[in-house]
From TrEMBL:
<protein>
    <submittedName>
        <fullName>AMP-binding enzyme</fullName>
    </submittedName>
</protein>
<dbReference type="InterPro" id="IPR042099">
    <property type="entry name" value="ANL_N_sf"/>
</dbReference>
């Protein structure tokens, strides 16, 4: 069994275990959606499930080499003409690709995106290059759940063949299937959806205060509670926002307490894995 930890939470990370057979099954489901792949260029860390599937298991099954780009994510490695390359993207990868559109033109590329919503740079690159690109929805608990082609108008998602939808009165995506992490028989994700067919749906947003900052999961309601505990008497609120680099982010507003820079340092000292707020602003009460 192979461990994968949830990332970017405001509490202890949770470890979920998966079998090698589950990883192989997921890679085999996703590979046909990408067409021919001769090489993989991965910007997704392989210790997270998304990076492991596309940067380790899929190329192993396809018998193709991998270039590990996530260790130096601000550099675009050389590409080889005539080699169809799968680019495994995080939200922050797309601005890098946009800066190098001139280099990318003429190369045979296909891209995959996951971990957070697409950004304006995503659609710029797809449009400028006429790029085939696939978006994957999933989590550490479920593995990949659904896919769709990347388009500006945001078409519906389609469940993968081995994923079964279950009723959920609260509108959250509830699924079962053979690739769920060990000990789970079903899982209700934080994704709010509206089904448009038996196996297709629209993504409406995330429940509660959940955001994924460049793929790192963050409960903004827990962040606000943490700030209130660190600064007694402080009223804190986190506001989810879109971000052109990371896809999703959050701003932190609070009423009383330390200066914003000091509050940032306090948050980092309490939880080094916590994605720092994009904006920290003290709003004095009347």
């Amino acid at each position: 069994m192979i461990p994968f930890r949830t990332s970017g939470t405001t509490g202890p990370a949770v470890t979920w275990w998966r079998g090698q057979d589950q990883l192989d099954a997921e890679a085999r489901l996703l590979l046909p959606l990408l067409g021919r792949v001769d090489r993989v260029l991965s910007f997704a860390p392989s210790h997270h499930l998304y990076g492991r599937i596309f940067g380790v298991e899929l190329p192993r099954l396809a018998g193709v080499p991998v270039v590990t780009a996530w260790t130096d994510p601000l550099v675009l490695p050389p590409l080889t003409a005539g080699i169809r390359c799968l680019v495994v993207c995080l939200p922050s990868t797309w601005p890098l690709l946009r800066r190098h559109v001139g280099r990318l033109r003429g190369n045979d590329l296909v891209a995959v995106h996951s971990t957070a919503c697409t950004t304006p740079a995503t659609h710029d690159v797809v449009d400028l290059l006429g790029l085939d690109a696939v978006e994957v929805l999933g989590s550490t608990e479920t593995g990949a759940v659904a896919t769709r082609p990347i388009t500006r108008d945001g078409c519906d998602w389609t469940l993968l063949p081995d994923v079964e939808p279950l009723p959920a009165a609260d509108g959250r995506l509830h699924v079962s299937g053979p690739r769920l992490a060990a000990s789970l028989t079903s899982h209700r994700t934080g994704d709010l959806v509206e089904f448009t067919g038996a196996r297709t749906f629209r993504h409406l947003g995330r429940s509660g205060g959940l955001v994924k900052v460049n793929g790192r999961r963050c409960d903004t309601e827990a962040v606000a509670a943490l700030v209130s505990r660190m600064a007694p008497g402080c009223d804190a609120r986190c506001v989810p926002v879109t971000d052109p680099i990371r896809g999703e982010h959050y701003d932190l507003y609070y009423s009383t307490g330390p200066e914003p820079a000091e509050l940032r340092r306090m948050l980092a000292a309490v939880d080094a894995d916590l994605p720092a707020p994009r904006l920290v602003r003290r709003v004095p009460t009347p």
